[in-house]
Amino acid sequence: MSGNIKYYLHSIADVVPLEIISAQTFSQIDRMASRFSDFAASEYIMETSLNTELAEVDFSFRILTQEKAALISGLNNDAFSTLAAGQTWGKFVDFINFWPGKIADIWLEMDYAEYEKSIPQPCFFFNARQVKNGTDVDKQLLFSALKWLLDIEQLQSFWPHLQWVIQQLPPAVGLFQAGVMFARNRDRVRIFTGELTREQTREYLSNIGWTSLSRLEELFELINPYSEGQYILDFDISADGISEKIGINFGLKTNDILPDFLNSLVDHHLCTDIKRRGVLAWPGSKGSYLGPDYGYSVLIKDISHFKLSYSPTEGIKVKAYLRVAGVYLKELFKARIPAKEDLGSINPL
Known about the structure:
globular; 34% helix; two-stranded antiparallel ribbon
């Protein structure tokens, strides 16, 4: 497969709500994406803060193992070469060369503040579901993955903390993702737990010593009436332990409840009316030609999830993660047409 990032962007350019992505922001994303023009991804996400009227987003995309070949090709093109010369992107390239089959996918995120920089810095995450199975933790897989992204001394400085917070998870709950947000910090790792219930979330945060546990019920009162009841926690781990800031990621129980949820956020001054309108306008679909490898496709715009974050210094904030994913009609037709060797088993009418 060839790169598809520019095809996706150009296909949705006329259907993205301006309340979410201004024309200027979209142009910045498009210029930055030229560096990744040979990358192929299965889905793209625009991350928007709901408490501000600024039509700015962070831009991220998911790359599956079957899209790795296009990624490696993209790492060797001229557009990416200026990035690859830098230390951070060199670590990213090293990780891709290491990328084992146990890691099903990776995510690359570009923060809005990085778009216009000569060498923008990424945030990078990898699928960590294979790290923990029941009470067994594959420490070798986790350490082997992180050592390509961090200096060994840094990794060793918080490795005991990292092992400990993983071991505190309920037996049936593993990790979802792990990674390093180079654009923000270079001395810590961010982890995302597997899905937790409300009760498991409370118990887990208590077990790992989160310092703002008294605020947790207030946070749940905001989201629990609307959520599907499963929560993915994210937080940073450094040599000092776990971060004061946590994120609670969740999906809505039904699509129909979206207007009520956003209205509630507006009432609590956690979402502007402009962003409410923009998020409501996001869902939809569009047919588009994505080049010879993908053919005519249907691009689905939906809401991946929301995140409520809290820290003592920043208070409560909410983000929406707005997704674009393609349904490739060529692949659907291919799956329905039997292979030549199977045609002999079909009885003619």
